[in-house]
Write a structure and sequence with these properties.
The structure is a single chain. The protein is α/β, with parallel strands linked by helices. About 40% of the residues lie in helices and about 20% in strands. It contains 15 helices and 22 strands. The strands form six sheets. A seven-stranded mixed beta sheet has the order 14-15-16-13-12-18-19, with helices on both faces. Helix 5 (about 155-170) links the parallel strand 7 and strand 8.
Length: about 500
């Protein structure tokens, strides 16, 4: 094991310890091994980072830098991420215990996200507005929001941070990043790379520490102009309330309960394969996980049998073992939450088809493992169907027609993503158009890329990340009006 990253925070261009002197031990979820010790920041550290970001933005050195130069630095950071991709992937797997192969895929995506926004940094030149007044010029221009607080989750630490960092920096903002206190390693490393790239002092800041202190300060502080948060809905609501005191801009992605709808005329083998991918990647700890599988009556039994047979063969293990297909959950607390949902589901009438317990393998006893699980005969009103479990638990429901499945799929408080499996193109388009979700896949699952917007309807969030819309989140629109032939009004006091 070689975890060679900073153990400090990065504030105003300097690596600093927490003012309190506190530290936090980072553990590997596979066996609870201590892998690194990092600074544990508090309110005072958050305030110092906010002050640095505020000063850097108000000096206008970065916000007034030409877009092409901002894009060059963001692109340089993309290059450095590519050069250090293997180290970053290993750090991500040490942090989360997801398989190293998954982490390597993430690094490729992350470099691409920075490169995409680097290319957009100088592309928005505003637009002329057709003025109804003669001899005037009217323009709408986009300008950076200002100081942006960015709170990232533990499940995809660097990927989610990149969705925030890249557009914010490309648009000319200054940032204060707060990764999850349990998975900070890759965010620390990418901050090292940002320093190496040459961003001006105070533009990029990193504060480590817990949400109730550091995160809350980012939300309430008057000098933070925007707060971006990806995480659970309960925390999201608290941040929204805290941010309301200063009426700052907010951009939230708060998870989902994502239906994977499989019609009888779907390609059966593909539907089974992608149903497994949709649920068990990263042990189901994915905001867009297709944990809610909805299968047409006539193929339900065949589908369940096929899925269960595949699930029994899933290999659990160490992230760095190439044979491993699924790692552990992130913590003991989170595993207990997943276990609780399965218990409730069985009480409400679901049928346990496979899994539903901790593994008996002695090699897995020190980690936070939970067997990949399938619950059959689930119904729309069950809590395990309506609420986000965030674990390796597939629920399978029956349906008999389009209206029923659309109604039930839309019945949750969430609206992040969903999928439709059918060989009938007209049916696919009909159902996709009726699903109230930010992303709908047809005959695929969990595909995203930098060019397309990502975000949810309803309580899945506010705003969009990725795509040009992700850049727009980090801008304000200003209307500039110029009169080229101003004439006196002679309205007040000119007649007497």
């Amino acid at each position: 094991m070689d975890v060679a990253v900073q153990d400090k925070m990065y504030i105003d261009g300097t690596w600093v310890a927490a003012q309190s002197g506190k530290t936090r031990e980072i553990i590997y979820p596979f066996d609870k091994r201590h892998i690194h010790t990092v600074a544990e920041g508090d309110v005072e550290d958050a305030q110092a980072a906010i002050a640095a970001a505020r000063d850097a933005f108000d000096r206008e050195e970065w916000s007034r830098t030409p877009g092409a130069e901002r894009g060059r630095l963001v692109g340089k950071l993309a290059d450095l991420i590519e050069e250090n991709a293997e180290e970053l992937a290993k750090l991500e797997s040490w942090d989360t215990a997801k398989t190293l192969e998954e982490s390597r895929w993430d690094m490729s995506d992350i470099a691409g996200i920075f490169r995409y926004y680097a290319g957009l940094a100088d592309k928005d030149h505003g637009e002329l507005v057709d003025s109804p007044i003669p001899n005037t010029v009217s323009r709408a221009v986009r300008e950076p929001v200002g100081v942006c607080g960015q709170i990232s989750p533990w499940n995809y630490p660097l990927l989610q941070a990149s969705w925030k960092m890249a557009p914010a920096l490309a648009a000319g903002n200054t940032i204060v990043m707060k990764p999850s206190e349990t998975t900070p390693l890759t965010t620390i490393k990418v901050t090292e790379l940002a320093e190496q790239a040459g961003f001006p002092k105070g533009v990029v800041n990193l504060v480590l520490g817990p949400g109730p202190t550091v995160g809350n300060e980012l939300a309430v502080h008057a000098d933070v102009d925007l707060i971006s948060f990806t995480g659970g809905i309960v925390t999201g609501k608290k941040i929204m309330q805290a941010a309301g005191g200063t009426v700052k801009k907010i951009a939230f992605e708060l998870g989902g309960k994502n239906p994977n709808i499989i019609f009888a005329d779907a390609d059966f083998e593909l539907a089974v394969d992608f149903a497994l991918n949709g649920v068990y990647f990263h042990a189901g700890q994915v905001c867009s996980a297709g944990a809610r599988v909805m299968v047409e009556d006539s193929i339900y039994d065949r589908f369940v049998d096929a899925v269960v047979e595949r699930v029994k063969r899933i290999k659990l293990g160490d992230a760095f073992d190439p044979r491993t297909e699924m790692g552990p959950l992130i913590s003991e607390e989170h595993r207990a939450k997943v276990e609780g949902y399965v218990d409730i589901a069985l009480e409400e009438g679901a049928k346990l088809l496979v899994g539903g317990a901790r593994p008996s393998d002695p090699a897995l006893q020190d980690g936070f493992f939970y067997l990949p699980t399938v619950l059959g005969e689930c119904t729309n009103e069950m809590r395990v169907v309506q609420e986000e479990v965030f674990g390796p638990v597939m629920t399978v429901e029956r349906f008999s027609g389009e209206d029923e499945v659309v109604r039930n799929a839309n019945s949750t408080i969430y609206g992040l993503s969903g999928a439709v499996w059918t060989t009938d193109q007209a049916k696919a388009e009909r159902v996709a158009s009726r699903l109230r979700m930010g992303t709908v896949w047809i005959n695929d699952f969990n595909i995203y890329f930098a060019q397309a917007p990502w975000g949810g309807y309803k309580q899945s969030g506010i705003g969009r990340e990725l795509g040009p819309q992700g850049l727009e989140e980090y801008t304000e629109i200003k209307h500039i009006y110029q009169n080229l032939a101003t004439e006196k009004a002679d309205w007040f006091g000119a007649k007497g």
